[in-house]
Design a protein that fits this description.
Structural class: alpha+beta
Number of helices: 6
Shape: elongated
Radius of gyration: 21 Å
Distance between the termini: 24 Å
Oligomer: single chain
Order of helices and strands: EHHHEHEEHEEEEEEEEHE
Helix content: 10-25%
Length: 272
């Protein structure tokens, strides 16, 4: 999967038509706003439209594929006369891609962008209960939208964690899911790296701290290594520690690629 920003794409008309294909009425409304040029005047000139698309080496490859999800990152949403900003809006996943929290990848991307801009919170206006909690949001308040209907406003707090006491430490533990084995509940998930836990250290879920272990291409059953990073899940109660068995340098992208097989179903950010 790859994330594109509509204003930076080579073929905006193509992607607007893809958005219009959504059966949701708001998807067609967003396409209309983008087509007639009123989206930025209505939602703010710095607003953006993000697209989650299938893999490819260039944008032309994505055009052969499918639009998975889209949403907006906007200065204003459908709540008038409020100082709350910025907003995640027009959140949509096409039916054939639902059930795997794909929209979470776009919300994660927007979270990192908002954090880089120094924002403290993200807001979402919705009429649905129990949905955005899955993406790290908490109910904040109710407000009236432009149609005078009651909207549920959710908030995602943007935080910076301190893992300085963890990163760089040496830990030992067991590998209960060695490289090449399958997930105990999701048999289609095969572990491309060793996955286990730290002896005697407990995580937010009450179980021993989970670790991804890098530095070997063979299955192992116990380990001793150095914590080189922490993957903080934004929509879960536990973090994942990344442990290296050697001192070979590993880039952020290499770590994210190694753990993507499982973390693609969660939102998170990597701390070094």
């Amino acid at each position: 999967m790859k994330i594109l920003e509509l204003s930076e794409t080579e073929n905006k008309t193509f992607w607007i038509e893809k958005i219009r294909m959504g059966e949701w009425r708001a998807a067609k409304y967003l396409a209309k706003l983008l087509q007639d040029g009123s989206f930025y005047s209505l939602c703010g000139k710095k607003s953006k439209v993000f697209l989650l698309v299938e893999d490819g080496s260039s944008e032309s490859d994505y055009i052969k594929g499918e639009l998975i999800s889209f949403c907006t990152y906007a200065e204003h949403d459908d709540i008038p006369d409020t100082e709350l900003s910025p907003w995640i809006g027009f959140v949509y996943t096409f039916p054939q891609f639902r059930g795997k929290r794909r929209i979470g990848k776009l919300i994660e991307h927007i979270y990192r962008l908002a954090k880089s801009e120094g924002k403290e919170n993200l807001y979402i206006s919705t009429d649905q209960k129990g949905l955005y909690e899955n993406f790290g949001a908490e109910f904040y308040t109710t407000l009236k939208d432009v149609n005078e209907d009651t909207a549920l406003v959710y908030k995602i707090k943007i935080e910076t964690k301190d893992y300085s006491s963890i990163i760089g430490t040496t830990v030992s533990g067991k590998i209960d899911r060695p490289l090449g084995t399958c997930h105990p509940r999701h048999k289609e998930m095969i572990y491309p790296i060793n996955y286990g836990y730290v002896d005697g250290i407990f995580a937010g879920d009450g179980a021993e701290q989970d670790v991804y272990v890098l530095g070997t291409d063979k299955p192992i059953y116990e380990y001793t290594g150095k914590v080189i990073s922490v993957y903080h899940r934004l929509n879960d109660c536990e973090d994942k520690w990344i442990v290296s068995l050697d001192d070979n340098p590993v880039s952020d992208q290499e770590i994210l690629k190694a753990i993507e097989f499982q973390e693609q179903y969660f939102m998170g950010e990597l701390y070094r």
